[in-house]
Amino acid sequence: MAQTTADGFAIPQAGRVFEFPRDHGSHPEFRTEWWYVTGHLDAEAGRRFGFQVTFFRQARREDGRTLHLHLAHAALLDAQTGRFVHEERLNREGWDAQSSETTLAARNGNWSLKLDEATQRMRIAATVRSEVLLQLELEAVKPLVVFGKDGVSRKGASAEAASHYLTWPRLKTTGTVKVGTEERQVSGEAWMDHEFSSSQLEAGQVGWDWAAIQLKDGREIMVYRMRRKDGTTDAFSTLAVVERDGKTRHVASDAFSWEVLGKWKSPRNGAEYPIRARIRFEGESFELRPLAEDQEQDGGITRLPYWEGACDVLDAHGQVAGRAFLELAGYAGDLAGHLRSQ
User: Fold this and answer.
1) R_g (Cα) of the chain, nearest Å
2) In this structure, which topology does domain 23-341 adopt according to CATH?
3) Does 336 score more than 70 pLDDT?
């Protein structure tokens, strides 16, 4: 297997031995990297929030040099009112944005995600459009998971269509959420993905549907469906179950189904997102039902809209069995073309 892409970026290799805290940090030899935190928070009087804080690093070749761009997204959903507030930032690497190569420490302006190596807890600080302030502490309840085979998560037939995919599937989360002048103590659970690769969508792939599911019974499910132009599911789609003891097993694309139950049309760009879905595998059935329909990140800076939302998880009997986050990409515009231009 080739070690690098044609323009010199690293390709994930099987059997990689991860070293921590170093591999929690940035990997500039790869083209693309992200630290992706989503979660559900509860406050007094039944108040509930969904949040997302994400840091991206994107490398590009320019005049013989490698430049690193740092993109960040932050969002908060107030489930009681349905109000969804989000913000996007983009900066070149330097004073305004950076990510450590030795540990987890990402920053974009006054947004930050840092690992305290002494306590092994992570801290998030972020504002959202000067309306929201998030200050959260996250502590792993279950061990770190490496998705894929031999440390490589495949996304397509090409050897380059792969990533190293590290996840904390369940993080105890505490802190404060301030909306306007009102500050609330919150607690809940979060999920964190750290993924790095040098690939883009393959020919014939137009986008993906991804879900991170935390069940009340102590299991977690990660599932992504790579979608093809003809509407079919790519054979390199996968579902993974993290058992109560932290052991992980993968389910092949032909052994699970993703059924669309309902759509929502964006009033901003006309995209139709399949925001309600049922996932079936091994005799189990789970429905993803969003807490609010409009949880679209409308792509202000990047012009790349996608839907990223907090959901309840219902079992086959219609009972709430857990909570989830759902991501729907490639429904608004030419995602593949946009990624090729980066």
Assistant:
1) 19
2) AttH-like fold (2.40.370)
3) no
